[in-house]
Design goal:
The protein is mainly β and about 350 residues long. Helices cover about 5% and strands about 40% of the residues. The chain is globular, with a radius of gyration of 23 Å.
Length: about 350
């Protein structure tokens, strides 16, 4: 009897010890002093956010090649962590509406030169393929709002003197796909408002100037109405204006972009949709002879992160655009400092308890 009691007591102590350690060797829920755990990263405190971005990592098997891989970091540039390890190109990361998952594009199932598909990353160890058009379409510019993921898909089968690019909508678990009718031959860089109601993209206006400027368009997905052209900046055919990479702020009122509106070099600017009619007036954010591209907003709308080669190679920067902003130019804060190129940042919502 005493031996049975001793065995039972020992068993209970072992169970209690395992429970105290989390019960497994996998990730455990963070304690109150740890903050939130996101994609394998434990944030230092609740109320923080993350920036996802792409880095061109040298391929150890080929000194002439690089692999585009996904990384995370805190908004001050610290705690940089690699998410993907693959010979494919992983790019265009976009956070889920609550920020606990990512969508991205990759050619990992069609190497070495195949088209890119859209994937969902619930964790670095749980990645799901959402689209299955590798032979015909090449996917870029993924974005995610409640109940819908969008991307631009270049048709690689149509041999035309111009791109044929559609906007594709995907259910976040890949249960359906559909094409959004934008009424444009080529619709680039689609982005969604945070509630999923509005789609902003860029395209060349139809007509004799088709091969000229790239303008911004806005579409109400809820109403199902045709898109409205937001910008008319490239009226002079001899001076085309190229505006790309739109990004909504978290309110859905401000749209950032990169553009040649102010000169030959691409600069970051934004427009206020509440005052966009009849002509959208751009507000300039950066002023530099380098290329400033691919903006995204922080959750509070006070900062814009972007990519620039102003210090040599392409790195991630952020610049303040909130209350009390000083007149131009504003000196951006450099977040990455590596010999590799970084690009395509996306800023998560705030993680709260």
């Amino acid at each position: 009897m005493f031996r049975r009691i001793l065995i039972l007591a020992t068993f209970l102590l072992v169970v209690l010890a395992i429970s105290a350690c989390g019960g497994s060797s996998g990730p455990t829920a963070p304690g109150d002093d740890e903050g939130e755990r996101v994609l394998g990263v434990v944030l230092p405190k609740a109320g923080a956010s993350l920036i996802a971005f792409t880095r061109a990592v040298p391929d150890p098997s080929n000194v002439y090649e690089v692999n585009r891989e996904l990384f995370l970091m805190l908004p001050n540039g610290s705690n940089q962590m690699r998410l993907t390890y693959n010979k494919a190109d992983d790019d265009y990361a976009a956070f889920s509406p609550k920020g606990f998952a990512l969508v991205f594009t990759s050619n990992r199932q069609s190497l070495p030169w195949g088209s890119h598909e859209v994937y969902r990353m619930n964790s670095p160890w749980n990645i799901i393929r959402l689209t299955k058009d590798a032979e015909e379409f090449d996917s870029t510019a993924a974005d995610w709002a409640p109940g819908i993921i969008t991307c631009a898909q270049l048709n690689t089968w149509i041999m035309a003197p111009f791109d044929v690019v559609r906007v594709q909508a995907v259910e976040p678990w890949g249960t359906w796909e559909k094409t959004i009718i934008t009424e444009q031959i080529a619709s680039y860089d689609p982005c969604l408002s945070r509630d999923g109601r509005y789609l902003c993209f860029c395209a060349r206006p139809s007509g004799p100037g088709y091969f000229g400027s790239m303008e911004l368009y806005l579409m109400d997905l809820t109403a199902g109405t045709p898109p409205v052209q937001l910008t008319h900046w490239g009226i002079d055919p001899d001076k085309p204006v190229y505006t790309r990479n739109p990004a909504f702020d978290f309110t859905g009122i401000l749209v950032a972009f990169d553009t040649t509106f102010w000169g030959e070099d691409r600069e970051i600017g934004y427009i206020n949709l509440a005052s966009a009619a009849p002509v959208a007036i751009p507000i300039r954010v950066t002023e530099n002879k380098a290329e400033d591209v691919q903006p995204c907003w922080d959750p509070k709308g006070n900062w814009i992160a972007f990519c620039s080669n102003r210090d040599g190679n392409y790195e991630i920067y952020k610049t303040y655009v909130g209350p009390g902003m000083m007149p131009m130019p504003v000196n951006p804060v450099r977040l990455t400092k590596t010999p590799e190129d970084e690009s395509n940042p996306d800023w998560s919502p705030v993680y709260t308890k």
